[in-house]
Amino acid sequence: MHRAFRMSILNAVIWVVLGAAAPAKSAKPLQIYFIDVEGGQATLVVSPSKRSLLIDAGWAGGRDADRIVAAMKSAGIKKLDYVVITHFHGDHVGGAADLVQRTKVTTFVDHGPDIEDSATAKETYAAYQKAITRATHVTVKPGQGLPFKDIRVQFLAAAGEHLSSPLPGAGEANLYCASEKEPPLDVTENSQSLGLLITYGKFRFLDLGDLPAKKELELVCPNNLIGTADLLLTTHHGGDPDNPKALVWALHPRVAVINNGEHKGGSPEVWQIVHDSPGLEDLWQLHYAADAGRAHNSLENLIANTDAKSDGHFIQVTVEPDGEWRVKNSRNGYEKKYGR
How far is CA 148 from the centre of its chain? Predict the structure, then answer.
């Protein structure tokens, strides 16, 4: 693609986001689907005006792409306006090649080139680069966003960098930072993860991909640059040592979701940190964490997939224009409302 044309697309698609989005005057809700890709990530966001954003594409092999398409059908959409790839590990980007064979993707968004150079990493990244050839490709930086008219999509972290100043209403000193130990250094693709904040009126949903603890703490210590989040997707599938207390507790989520697999993520340490977070009302899980034990799993109604024979069920979040929202388990239809 000609450079000037590419730059015009870039300028049209990316813009610096400044305040909070107000709900459009529509009876349609915001919908979020946490799709079961068994220890990877695929989160479908559909705005009230039916514009769509998929965060990550799960594993290669076709299974996860099929589950994404099924969620799209449930949401009433036939194409994906944006596919955001948080980073280039196979459980997040592997399904991209399968996905473009099943549905139209208008724009792929990522943090820039893969920083890993193993044979597996090169193969995975090459498959992704081939998959995006028929779509627009955009690289984003912290502070930029995507042009939705009824929701706001902000990138808080990208390519190892993060916001340089607090979001509106944020910036308070974080008292939980004092008790944090020095986290390990992570030089993998995890450290490059895109982190997103999606806002609809006063409702805020935070997804930091697989951002490791050191990078997470940079966002909230010594001052909390993010503020609070109504809905939190735990980082790195609920794995330890990520999801440090100073992050989770500073965010004060009302509801958290762990996108774990039966034997991946959902560590007891992280589950307890999130469970004990001040103001948390519920902790939902995509899978029962078999290795964590009963004491570190939520009640069955809050778990989409309960055993090895229970796969493919999703967690759906619906946010109404008036601010009321609810979470539903597709396995059994259990639904819980969360007021304004």
Answer: 17
Query: Are the beta carbons of 100 and 131 closer than 8 angstroms?
Result: yes
- Domain that includes residue 253, residue range: 16-338
pLDDT at 15: 39
Quote the Cα angle for 113-231-264, to 5°.
60
In this prediction, residues 58-86 reach a mean pLDDT of 98
Tell me whether residue 62 is in a domain.
Answer: yes
Q: How far apart are CA 261 and CA 234, in angstroms?
A: 13
Q: Are 257 and 231 in contact (CB under 8 A)?
A: yes
Q: How many domains does the chain have?
A: 1
Q: Which runs of E-coded beta strand occur in the chain?
A: 15-16, 30-34, 43-46, 52-55, 79-84, 104-110, 136-139, 144-146, 152-158, 161-162, 195-200, 203-207, 231-233, 255-258, 282-287, 303-305, 315-319, 325-329, 335-338
Taking 50 as the threshold, does the pLDDT of residue 6 lie above it? no
Can you tell me which residue has the tokens 């103001």? 279
CA distances for 161 relative to 14, 75, 136, 275, angstroms? 17, 33, 23, 29
Spatial distance between the Cα atoms of 238 and 258, rounded to a whole number of angstroms: 6
Domain with residue 248: its CATH number is 3.60.15.10
pLDDT band with cut points at 50, 70 and 90 for residue 217: very high
For residue 10, is it within any domain? no
Write the DSSP string, 179-225: GPPPPPP--SGGGG--EEEEEETTEEEEE-TT--HHHHHHHHSSB-S
- Residue 204 in any domain: the answer is yes
Q: Please check whether residue 3 lies inside any domain of the structure.
A: no
Hey, CA dihedral for 79, 159, 152, 257, is it positive or negative? positive
The answer to whether 100 and 60 are in contact (CB under 8 A) is: no
